[in-house]
Design goal:
Layout lengths: L3 H22 L3 H19 L12 H18 L5 H21 L12 H4 L5
Helix pairs in contact: 2-3, 2-4, 3-4
Length: 124
């Protein structure tokens, strides 16, 4: 009996992988881009201490990386997603950039903050 268990587990993993592959194949690229952007925004907000937990998960170094990645994704994907999707994401990015500037003990120079390489300087 123990010999059958591993092969069944292996078959289940293969079936799950095939199901996931089929599922992801049905998702439009715009939806994938927007979902990734929203996940980056959410993670950045947590690392900025903007959640109910506040400073418990605050880590400005991590927030900088996430905001920069979000700005790069939005810059690269701007022509691929409609303004219907891009506008609110850009607004969210700007809010995160401003929150980062406010949370920093020594704010970056304009144009040097996270993601400003892609968006240009962000002013409060």
């Amino acid at each position: 009996m123990s010999d059958a268990t591993p092969s069944n587990a292996s078959a289940d993993r293969t079936t799950d992988y095939e199901t996931m592959t089929r599922d992801i194949a049905e998702v439009p690229a715009v939806e994938v881009i927007v979902t990734v952007a929203v996940n980056l925004m959410s993670a950045a907000a947590v690392k900025l201490g903007l959640t109910e937990e506040g400073d418990q998960y605050k880590d400005l170094d991590e927030a900088r990386k996430l905001i920069h990645a979000l700005a790069g994704l939005l810059d690269a994907g701007a022509t691929e997603i409609s303004s219907f999707h891009a506008a609110p994401l850009r607004d969210g990015l700007k809010s995160l950039q401003l929150a980062f500037r406010e949370a920093s003990l020594v704010p970056d120079e304009p144009g040097q903050g996270p993601g400003e390489k892609y968006t240009g300087p962000v002013y409060g």
